[in-house]
Automatic annotation (TrEMBL):
UniProt-recorded name of the protein: GTR5 protein
GO molecular function, one term: D-glucose transmembrane transporter activity
Residue stretches spanning the membrane: 6-25, 125-147, 210-229
GO biological-process terms attached to the record: D-glucose import; dehydroascorbic acid transport
Keyword field: Membrane, Transmembrane, Transmembrane helix
Gene3D superfamilies documented for this protein: MFS general substrate transporter like domains
Pfam families: Sugar_tr
PANTHER family: MAJOR FACILITATOR SUPERFAMILY (MFS) PROFILE DOMAIN-CONTAINING PROTEIN (PTHR23503:SF54), SOLUTE CARRIER FAMILY 2 (PTHR23503)
First-listed, main subcellular location of the protein, grouped into a coarse class: membrane
Plastid is among the record's keywords: no
Length: 230
């Protein structure tokens, strides 16, 4: 039982690693909006599997659902930050990106509170608690189709300048947005001369060695500071 419990908890992180590793390839190939929509479907399926695990008397469904949730979360974190930042006007971009972290923390806090035995953490309601992660995914699945694709993606990866202008007008309203389009074009020109490193190449690159050390130390410190125990 202890082994199964440990696997159930840790398999979320394994799924997250796989999901985040494939996020770049999927966003370039399919676009951020399509990836987010498909990711919502994945999360809803995972929530449904976990919600039905007690009725089916199958702990394997919890394992599968947790793994799928991890993949979905791994995809969602970089995707969400990128999409929110790219559809926001320049003067609100920093604020929009910070809201992602705020709601990420708020969601974790709400999950901890909902998991109390007095609320959804009881013996009869815990399947409902595990299925609750599908609710925000359903909300986004219903609302996201009304939003356009990311303007930088349309211009940089698809070469659709008219589609980019239309998306900008839909997001930011009518007006002169040529300066923003010029910025995207400059970024596109810069990317042509910049080599995209793989994870292995990044680890081997001496120029990024100290930055990599700092990130690893900070991340390890967060895990060892006692927050998980709290």
């Amino acid at each position: 039982l202890l082994f199964l419990w440990s696997i159930t908890v840790s398999i979320f992180g394994i799924g997250g690693l796989l999901g985040s590793s494939g996020s770049r390839y999927l966003t370039v190939k399919f676009g951020k909006k399509k990836c987010l929509l498909c990711n919502n479907v994945l999360m809803i399926v995972a929530a449904s599997i976990m919600g039905c695990s007690k009725i089916s008397q199958s702990f394997e469904m919890i394992l599968i659902g947790r793994f799928m949730c991890g993949v979905s979360a791994g995809l969602c974190v970089p995707l969400h930050h990128q999409y929110v930042g790219e559809i926001s006007p320049k003067k609100l971009r920093g604020f929009a990106n910070s809201t992602s972290s705020f709601f990420w923390s708020l969601g974790k806090a709400m999950g901890q509170i909902s998991g109390q035995r007095e609320l959804l953490g009881s013996q009869s309601l815990w399947p409902l608690l595990m299925a609750s992660c599908g609710l925000p995914a359903l909300v986004q699945l219903l609302t996201l189709p009304f939003f356009p694709e990311s303007p930088p993606y349309l211009l940089m990866h698809k070469g659709d300048q008219e589609g980019c202008k239309k998306a900008i007008r839909q997001l930011w309203g009518e007006g002169q947005h040529q300066a923003e389009i010029d910025d995207i074009m400059k970024e596109k020109a810069t990317m042509k001369n910049t080599k995209i490193l793989s994870v292995l190449e990044l680890v081997k690159e001496p120029a990024f060695r100290w930055q990599l050390y700092m990130i690893v130390i900070l991340t390890a410190t967060i895990q060892l500071c006692g927050i998980n125990a709290v």
